């Protein structure tokens, strides 16, 4: 049985299953701990609930960098002070297919929860609709949002800028953020098809790890101040720039993300977002665009056959031993739900609990 | 002065400007020649006009593989017989944000011309709208369609599957087509921001050229039948598969394109399209999805400022010596329009003119 007391973990019953240096927590315990820390630092109950939900989902899916670890950075953003701790998102109807939510400089999750309800109402009437989230602090992965929409039977696409760290193809100076793009497709009787990736070659944190350990970078991750390929982490981070994945094609996609999730929706580009942060290292503040498509409007009366077409596509991928994008994450989810607990590194848990002091 | 008589070209006045082995034709002459050949092979006047327009645009922009050269493959598709030569596209209104056009097994261009008018009407009312084109033969680039929409002040995104030649990341057998994705953003007083690229690492024709010349392929273009990297063009084309750009990220994007321009709109995946072709080598038959977004619905009352934000983004790319995706094409366009003519290889012109015999 997992621990029922956070402060005095009792691992005896499951000692064999829990990795050394880790503590088992139920998903409820993860949620409660995240919630307690965030409210302790002044975040409103509604925001803390919404954030604790995505942090718990991250731990459940063993996406550790988006799990309990994020309580630390989220608290840092709260301490930094610019984020509105009790912001109430303001919905504005912009047209039959467009809803915008002004997050009022709060975290993005609550704004998404409020806005996605209206997005779903709209897409049920129009067939395609878009949600713009403005003025939010954003730190989470996009897949929790994609999954929240896809479980209502729609396909969904989401994009955000971040902080300008990534040079365009052929350039040397940062323009783009790590600019994630995520997409989901509903499947009957199976986990949805979901991808969520940064359009940078790798995460910035990955390059930080190379710097700390003094290793040289793989080629294609970054350039120096002159735009020449660099395998030195410090050069890439401090003088040059990161690169996008996929050369000029990735660079073009990243530009599209800047435009659709920035100027289109009246919000900041990654360069503007980095300037606003002004070295504080808080969660980036910017906008987000989410597009939903209702397959029932697009299918010419053969909805079931069309769904089967998609299933054949997935089978032709998995049937040859290739993986679908979220396969590992869904396997972790099954494992966590079957076990009834997740495993948090002791040191991380200590750091998080200290934030309650 | 460019030639005014196709059959007896007079190059005297511009001999110095025309490359050896090339013939100068005005854009009107390109259009007329394409139109004559296509109607000569039984294509209806409406279809021939629509196709001649995109072929002329291809030559004008020096995208030679989408210019006069396509008259050859288009005629081959007409001779193959499956394409409906006088198909009349049928528009169906699927909802406030969705219009579908059944191309009735004709070429895609006329269906796009018909459908894009409705798409624009819809997006003006809803803020975001989608056009699905079904049952069309498709051979052209997507940028002419993107530009046709963007000149009305909307942002646009288009995707199509093709023929299954490309393996998923981690696989060995073809599942995806070269699956192009194209995007456009309107700019006041400047050519629009437009990209249009295949999600395969390279075009299949490029690998064919390597086979013909006996050169080894660069790494990352293809795999052998076991999924191991291959630099042998014949192995990749005949036994293994091509690869997407950008590894698993490109593979995920290509999957999204299959889903949105295939099963979502009730049309074929690249694998189904290749099966239908059954070795004929005609233009692929499949569907297409086009999404348009009207910035006026998304902007929170600061439309001009938001546009300027996008311009700053472009400046930060070009200002450091990096190129915007269509920059070369737009330079070619200016050149062609200033010259008043384009240059067609004599051998190609001969091949095309022979199709009139």
TrEMBL record, chains A, B:
Gene3D superfamilies: 1.10.1530.10, Hypothetical oxidoreductase yiak, domain 2. Keywords: Oxidoreductase. InterPro entries: Mal/L-sulf/L-lact_DH-like_ah, Mal/L-sulf/L-lact_DH-like_NADP, Mal/L-sulfo/L-lacto_DH-like_sf, Malate/L-lactate_DH-like. It comes from the Bacteria. The keyword Oxidoreductase applies. The keyword Metal-binding does not apply. Belongs to the LDH2/MDH2 oxidoreductase family. This is Ldh family oxidoreductase. The lineage of its organism: Bacteria, Pseudomonadati, Pseudomonadota, Betaproteobacteria, Burkholderiales.
């Amino acid at each position: 049985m997992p621990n029922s007391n956070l402060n005095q973990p009792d691992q005896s019953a499951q000692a064999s299953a829990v990795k050394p240096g880790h503590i088992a927590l139920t998903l409820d315990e993860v949620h409660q701990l995240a919630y307690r820390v965030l409210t302790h630092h002044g975040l409103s109950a509604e925001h803390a609930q919404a954030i604790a939900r995505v942090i718990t989902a991250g731990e459940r899916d063993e996406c550790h960098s988006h799990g309990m670890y994020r309580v630390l950075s989220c608290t840092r953003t709260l301490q930094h002070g610019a984020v509105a701790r009790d912001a109430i998102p303001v919905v504005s109807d912009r047209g039959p297919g467009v809803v915008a939510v002004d997050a009022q400089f709060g975290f993005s999750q609550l704004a998404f929860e409020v806005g996605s309800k209206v997005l779903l109402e709209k897409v049920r009437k129009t067939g395609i609709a878009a949600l713009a989230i403005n003025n939010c602090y954003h730190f989470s992965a996009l897949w929790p949002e994609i999954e929240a929409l896809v479980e209502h039977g729609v396909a969904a696409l989401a994009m955000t800028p971040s902080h300008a760290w990534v040079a365009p193809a052929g350039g040397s100076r940062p323009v783009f953020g790590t600019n994630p793009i995520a997409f989901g497709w509903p499947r009957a009787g199976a986990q949805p098809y979901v991808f969520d990736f940064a359009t940078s070659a790798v995460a910035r944190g990955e390059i930080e790890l190379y710097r700390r350990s003094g290793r040289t970078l793989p080629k294609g991750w970054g350039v120096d101040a002159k735009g020449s390929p660099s395998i030195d982490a410090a050069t890439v981070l401090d003088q040059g720039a990161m690169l996008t994945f996929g050369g000029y094609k990735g660079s073009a996609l990243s530009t599209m993300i800047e435009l659709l999730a920035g100027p289109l929706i009246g919000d900041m580009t990654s360069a503007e977002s980095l300037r606003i942060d002004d070295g504080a290292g808080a969660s980036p503040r910017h906008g987000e665009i989410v597009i939903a498509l209702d397959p029932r409007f697009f299918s010419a009366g053969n909805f079931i056959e069309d769904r089967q077409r998609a299933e054949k596509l997935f089978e032709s991928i998995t049937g040859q031993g290739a993986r679908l994008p979220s396969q590992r994450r869904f396997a972790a989810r099954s494992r966590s739900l079957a076990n009834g607990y997740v495993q948090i590194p002791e040191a991380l848990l200590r750091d998080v609990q200290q934030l309650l002091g």
